[in-house]
Amino acid sequence: MSLDTLGPKQLTLTRPTDPHDPNGIAHATDSADTGNGAATKAARAAAKIAWANYVQDWKEAYRVGDSSGPPEFPDNGEIDYADD
């Protein structure tokens, strides 16, 4: 399950490098969805958890001054961006 189709106005959205960048989760869809929305809802939930983990890791790295923290939202298979 992954969000492999970004919203129509987000087709050029690239992988976020900062928690303030748009992540596209709210408008992305899962092409495996059979019309009832269950696959997209499950994929969005997984992507939101991955996003929350990324933001937490980014904030912790920023707090301790660790520039080797996560440079971008990791490609964990949850969402496909234009630059993937």
Quickly describe the structure.
With 84 residues, the chain is mainly α.
Give the tags.
84 residues; mainly alpha; elongated
What is the topological layout?
Layout: H1 38-64
Q: What would you say this structure looks like, in words?
A:
- The structure is a single chain.
- By secondary structure, this protein is an all-alpha fold.
- It has one domain.
- It has one helix spanning 38-64.
- The radius of gyration is 13 Å and the shape is elongated.
- The two termini are 17 Å apart.
- The mean pLDDT is 83.
Q: How would you classify the helix and strand content by structural class?
A: mainly alpha
Strand content: under 5%
Rg computed from alpha carbons, rounded to a whole number of angstroms: 13 Å
The biggest beta sheet reads: none
Tally the beta strands: 0
